[in-house]
Write a structure and sequence with these properties.
This protein is an alpha/beta fold. The protein is built from 16 helices and 20 strands. Strands 7-8-6-9-10-11 form a six-stranded parallel beta sheet, with helices on both faces. A six-stranded mixed beta sheet has the order 15-16-20-17-18-19, with helices on both faces. Strand 10, helix 9 (232-235) and strand 11 (244-248) form a beta-alpha-beta unit. Helix 2 runs parallel beside helix 3 (53-62) and helix 13 (371-380) packs across helix 14 (391-405). The chain is globular, with a radius of gyration of 23 Å. The mean pLDDT is 95.
């Protein structure tokens, strides 16, 4: 048995433990803590009749205490350990008071990093996290390494730590919400980029950036952080790094690093340039995705045979809801990029295509600026459809740039995604692409970006 895990487990008996969040992914945690004798209380905004059947079964089976409803955190007093949900930031006044009183505030992911017996690769960034995480996992698996994927994607890992061996590798996708307040870092970390995001939840852009730094802040001298050399904010993180720094870049030839040079991913070493991959020969599209490959290669270099990279990645077409090809209708190709919830993410999607673009954008407003997106739209998009809460904000930004550049494009503002898809079907010309890349969150009309993407795909497949 993992000695660190054994010690943690032995300390659970009779401890008062709060778990914030009634998501189904927390079911293994409720069971685990209860089986080791902890006195568990569930905290959630939902009322009892809004909880899932799976959660209710666990509540009854283990006699879990409940604190539910709008004032659910009022009774968060006197706990030994609090497992917070990512959306409940450590700056929350109730958590601050409990920490000052002596409670340990933590997350499942933080405990994984503290207690795991093997190396951990952590990936964060404003965009590209999921794709980079998936590519990292593919490269490791393709090299014969047993992997466990967790964090934002994959499955909860904390409750299976005793099954993990020293030679395995854990790969974690980590959001700013998960990283905030964390006091431990992965052995190998990647930061894909930094741009404004989640400013509707974080107190400031500075708080968001500082949270990202936790992915390397507690690293040791022999740990590694992989930074985006082309992103000024990320590049400057090198001044705060304790371990070794590797860079990826589009065009800058940095020694002992994987970089993108034209159509080739290369490994640069003492003036020698080894071609690792011709990106024209793989199915994945977009220079941002080729940079994600570079980042993943820098993180997995000790495991991956350079000669096998093409064979491992040749058939990878990307992650669901991220430049996901849906179908071709009457010579028009449709792509689902619903996971692009910020202007920067949608900018990358737009730049992935050389064809004429019909862009569908708009959604929940996260208090972001749309001027940079408007610039890309004016330069690259032929037809623009807007819907959702941010439709007027995007429209005004685009009209301003059009006026400044004395240009014009066709813009249609509508109320529903269904109206938009049908209209785009009738208007788009053969040889073009329809790109659904909202540049906004989904919560004005949908549960999340994945449900929104599924609805889009269903609408397209029913045309």
């Amino acid at each position: 048995m993992n000695k660190k895990v054994e010690e943690f487990n032995n300390n659970l008996k009779d401890k008062k433990i709060a778990v914030i969040g009634a998501g189904v992914s927390n079911i293994p945690l409720f069971e685990y803590l209860s089986n080791y004798g902890a006195k568990v209380t569930l905290f959630d905004k939902k009322e009892y009749d809004e909880l899932s059947n799976e959660i209710i079964e666990i509540i009854k089976k283990y006699s879990i205490e409940l604190s539910l409803g709008n004032k659910y955190l009022d009774s968060l007093v006197g706990f030994d350990i609090i497992f917070r949900s990512p959306s409940c930031l450590p700056t929350n006044e109730y958590l601050v008071k409990e920490k000052e009183r002596g409670a340990m505030i933590t997350t499942e992911v933080e405990q994984v990093i503290k207690l795991a017996p093997c190396k951990i690769i952590g990936i964060t960034g404003s965009k590209g996290k999921t794709t980079t995480t998936t590519i990292t996992d593919l490269l490791l698996k393709g090299s014969g390494v047993k992997t466990y994927v967790g964090g934002n994607i994959g499955k909860p890992i904390f409750t299976i730590l005793n099954d993990i061996k020293e030679d395995d590798v854990i790969v974690l996708e980590l959001s700013s919400f998960q990283l905030m307040g964390m006091e431990v870092s992965p052995n190998i970390s990647i930061i894909t980029n930094i741009s404004p995001d989640h400013l509707d939840i974080h107190a400031s852009y500075e708080e968001y950036i500082d949270a990202k730094k936790n992915i390397f802040r507690y690293q040791k001298d022999d740990d590694i952080v992989v930074l985006n050399y082309d992103d000024a904010i990320v590049r400057d993180f090198c001044n705060d790094v304790n371990g070794k720094v590797k860079y990826f870049s589009d065009g800058n030839k940095i020694n002992n690093c994987y970089i993108l040079d034209g159509n080739y991913i290369k490994y640069i070493s003492d003036g020698r340039e080894d071609i690792i991959l011709d990106v024209r020969k793989i199915k994945l599209r977009g220079r941002h995705n080729y940079l994600n490959i570079c980042a993943a290669l820098n993180a997995t270099d000790e495991y991956v045979d350079k000669d096998k990279v093409y064979d491992i990645l040749k058939d990878f077409v990307g992650v669901k809801h991220r430049l996901e090809y849906v179908r071709e209708i009457n010579g028009v190709k449709w792509y689902n990029d619903s996971a692009s919830t910020t202007p920067d993410k949608s900018n990358a999607g737009i730049m992935a295509f050389d064809e004429d673009i019909t862009l569908i954008a708009g959604g929940y407003d996260k208090n972001l600026d749309y001027d940079t997106l408007a610039e890309k739209i004016v330069d690259k998009v032929k037809i623009l459809f807007l819907f959702g809460q941010t439709k007027d904000k995007i429209y005004n930004s685009v009209k301003k740039i059009l006026k400044d550049k004395d240009k014009d494009i066709s813009i249609y503002v509508m109320d529903t995604l269904e109206e938009v898809v049908v209209s785009a079907y009738h208007i788009s010309k053969p040889g073009s692409v329809v790109l659904f890349s909202p540049a906004s969150a989904s919560f004005d009309m949908f549960d999340n970006a994945y449900q929104r993407g599924d609805v889009f795909k269903e609408l397209v497949n029913n045309l």
